[in-house]
């Protein structure tokens, strides 16, 4: 179906089947929440602060970027668009080549790309390790391998694409810290993939959660992540999203 149709921008193939199954089960079950049906993953939780922090200080000037992948980029983008200190969050692809950086190719699962989000942030307001804390706490279930919620395939893997050795150091240390603390019932499966180039996704994928809050996929899979952010990190939550379309940060 067309990407521009109201119910189907990402409800095609396995994702569409999974979403239809979720909706049907919800109608039959009645009292069962959509989130419980859509997520076979760990619920959000406020994870501990990183023991190894990023070497970013309030004296620094300029913005930095972080690139994270955690399943469908709609939800990851939607979460970080509401984080204080984030100046821009763009949905896109990372891990593959420029020639395949388009949804029709990435959705096959054979390009090496993951659906990812490039986050531009102000290190005077929020550090890289603090972004990772939010990422692991509410944006995904990091114990899932090549899937999140109803979406499966390597394009939905959990991955961190560090911009430099410092980001890789901080990410590796935080994953080791969480595993040592048994923060999750299973080991964290998030991969650290240095050297990747980020390619912005098509315009219709940008700001999707903010523009389509009642879309069935968003309601079932992504709105709960934003509610977790608001409940678990109220001090980090901005009241209005920073949109690719141009709304200024709160």
Explain briefly what this protein structure is:
With 250 residues, the chain is an alpha+beta fold. It has helices at residues 13-29, 34-38, 73-80, 103-106, 128-139, 165-180, 208-211, 216-232; strands at 64-70, 86-94, 114-121, 147-148, 151-152, 158-161, 191-192, 198-200.
Written overview of the protein:
The protein has 250 residues and is α+β, with helices and mostly antiparallel strands. It has one domain: Peptide Methionine Sulfoxide Reductase, Chain A (2-Layer Sandwich). 33% of the residues lie in helices and 15% in strands. It has a 6-stranded mixed beta sheet with strand order 7-6-1-3-2-8, covered by helices on one side. α3 packs parallel to α8 and α5 crosses α6 (165-180). The chain starts with 12 loop residues before the first helix and ends in an 18-residue tail after the last helix. The model is unreliable at 1-9 and 11-40 (pLDDT under 50).
List the helices and strands and how they pair.
Elements: H1 13-29, H2 34-38, E1 64-70, H3 73-80, E2 86-94, H4 103-106, E3 114-121, H5 128-139, E4 147-148, E5 151-152, E6 158-161, H6 165-180, E7 191-192, E8 198-200, H7 208-211, H8 216-232
Parallel strand pairs: 6-7
Antiparallel strand pairs: 1-3, 1-6, 2-3, 2-8, 4-5
Helix pairs in contact: 3-5, 3-8, 5-6, 5-8
Physical arrangement of strands within the biggest beta sheet = 7-6-1-3-2-8
Provide the gyration radius in Å. 17 Å
Shape annotation: globular
CATH topology: Peptide Methionine Sulfoxide Reductase, Chain A
The name of the CATH superfamily reads Peptide methionine sulphoxide reductase MsrA
Structural class: alpha+beta
Q: Classify the helix fraction into a percent range.
A: 25-40%
What value does the average pLDDT take? Answer: 85
Relative strand content? 5-15%
Compute the number of strand runs.
Answer: 8
| Number of structural units classed as domains | 1
